[in-house]
Design goal:
The complex is a heterodimer of chains A (572) and B (163).
Chain A (H helix, E strand, L loop, with lengths): L2 E3 H11 L4 E5 L5 H8 L5 E4 L3 H15 L3 E5 L3 H4 L2 H9 L4 E7 L15 H5 L5 E4 L6 H13 L5 E7 L8 E3 L19 H13 L3 E5 L1 H5 L3 H11 L3 E3 L14 E4 L6 H9 L2 E5 L5 H4 L10 E6 L13 E4 L2 H14 L6 H17 L13 H11 L5 E4 L3 H9 L8 E2 L10 H11 L5 E5 L11 H7 L4 E6 L4 H10 L15 H7 L3 E5 L5 H10 L5 E6 L9 E2 L8 E2 L7
Parallel strand pairs in A: 2-3, 2-4, 4-5, 5-7, 6-7, 9-10, 9-12, 10-11, 12-13, 13-14, 15-16, 15-17, 17-18, 18-20, 19-20
Antiparallel strand pairs in A: 1-8, 21-22
Chain B lengths: L1 E9 L4 H11 L6 E6 L5 E9 L2 H13 L3 E6 L5 E12 L4 H11 L3 E5 L3 E8 L1 H11 L4 E6 L3 E4 L8
Antiparallel strand pairs in B: 1-3, 1-4, 2-3, 5-7, 5-8, 5-9, 6-7
The chains are: A alpha/beta (572), B alpha+beta (163).
Amino acid sequence: MELLSGADMLIRSLQDEGIEYIYGYPGGAALHIYDALFRQDKVKHILVRHEQAAVHMADGYARATGKPGTVLVTSGPGATNTITGIATAFMDSIPMVVLCGQVASTLIGEDAFQETDMMGVSRPVVKHNLSVRHPEEIPEIIRKAYYIAATGRPGPVVVDIPKDMTTPNERYEYAYPKKVKLRSYNPAIRGHAGQIKKAVDMMLAAKRPVIYAGGGVILGKASDQLTELVRMLGYPITNTIMGIGCYPASDKQHLGWLGMHGTYEANMAMHHSDLILCVGARFDDRVTNATEKFCPGARIIHIDIDPASISKTVDADVPIVGPVDAVLKEMLALVKEAKEKPDADAIASWWKQIDEWRAFHGMRYETSPDVIKPQEVIEMLCRLTNGEAFVTSDVGQHQMFAAQYYKFDKPNRWINSGGLGTMGFGLPAAMGVKLTHPDDEVLCITGEGSIQMNIQELSTCKQYNLPVKIINLNNQALGMVKQWQDMNYESRHAESYMESLPDFIKLAEAYGHKGVRIEKKEDLETKLKEVLAMKDDLVFVDIYVDRFEHVYPMQVARGSMKDMWLSKTERV
Amino acid sequence: MRRIISVLLENEPGALSRVVGLFSQRNYNIETLTVAPTEDETLSRLTVTTTGSDKVIEQITKQLNKLIEVVKLVDLTEGAHIERELMLVKLKATGSQRAEIKRTVDIFRGQIVDVTSSVYTVQLAGDSDKLDGFIQAVGTSGVLEVVRSGVSGIARGEKVLSL
């Protein structure tokens, strides 16, 4: 058997796990590991400029490919800088392994230089964390880390590696375990057959059904099964912001997404439904509005891999714990062989009602002859990229506009921090996507607030030639904060206005990229076309948009699903 | 409602802090907590008493089960069970108090396990209400120090919590 040092075992384990890229930043406690990285060329390392960005890059990669991302950082500040990224991945159930250096085990607890209790600090925001106590454990720990991160309800796993576990001259026998078994961790592999049957009977008998799908469909790679089932039933479907792309947005059965800034028709259909089939979503507060007023006439079927997501905020009538793909497959088989068919008359009148809601509002917004509206930028980008781009976003109004007006027909293409709402996510996430999808268009839709939270990564983009397109919807304010202040604080704009914005064009150029500013409405289309034609350049597109625009629809706080503002003056 | 949840946990460093962290992170209440290794040295048994609505208790058990190091758990209060807590109490015992305390200890089936000229140390086991009752009976004015172990519990009959 081969003899390897702890550091070499770690890198070999990553190779044997099939890891292609790791994102990271070196430092004292990780130097043995970095030396082992240097002496091989299978695992490629991407050097970021801030550890938070390494985690978002790994996250973007994971969301676009469905495979776990990998991060490598040093102890202390290197490790603590990853926390926001880890929490982002945790909230959205993104598979990821974060390898952290640690001071030597002999120094732990002595407040050594760059010592932080990373096991303690990360505990509330990880699926699990593991600490290496002997170098020989490394292969098994790495195998376990990826297994836990990628199975069941996915999530980030931290591995804490004291420096003396990776000492170069201490060698041990290396073998990468083929299988891993944990007696205390056995995620469900199929749903309960009786519950599935009961659910299908309820679905076929429903008069006003709606399917409510979430990020679990994308994580569970079940878009095909879901699409087939929805089309076979002919029922309306809405999805969460995390579920965007799980069902084609351009399809007539798709109502758009639901919740706080969801479409009028999706929220109305939910509120008036008699049956909700929830697939891989979690009745988040941004979806349900006040839970006690949530969909009063609906019975609820809830499919989720995580039992703790079921009946957490809204009680399920029929809970089904299992992987969504397997459960949907069984549902499909049952629907196909069922003697009963959906009630055609009831479903037809339900659609008639929904179409009236659609016609009533839709996604219209006021346009202006000279001011660029953020919505029209997104619509134009969608048209110019044929709805095929990978779109990452930061957090705020631009995120909502992007999610509302870019029509995604495929999963894994809309990449945003839905759960934690992390500003600074968009650019590094776009980099993670571009690295592995060099031939695809990758847009980072952002605002002048968010982009400045990880703008240093323009330097990483230069080093690794990552020609993403940064679409900065510049309204010279923290737009979503300002919108809330307009609506709830009599327009007292406490700290939501950004004075002294940098010249983003010069900034992009200083990092060796291109910059394009768009101020006039008549230039929008020509300039965007030019930008998209610059295939080999990172282009920072600074677009001056309407400073006073709000995101609508917007649910009225503490109301039901159907209580919404449709514009600054229309409330339903 | 008060519940007693018994958990088999991997006997590994950090496992206990995950359980305790979960309770504070999700705003659940811990009334008592006891933990010790079992006859299988790879496992610890942890007993926690908590209060909450049925919905909260359901979440607590589900969230506990999600912890990778939690092997198995049971809500003992769902069925017939035995609960015990151990208490050591130091009581001021001089003059006529000495006989009075002795009588009360006998009524509660406790034992005096240490004696000085002015102090009795009493050991008492039982459910939490009984221990509260004893403190009430002797009166808090004579109590110098109280230490309670927290609740341990086990199901009645054939039901066992094991692998």
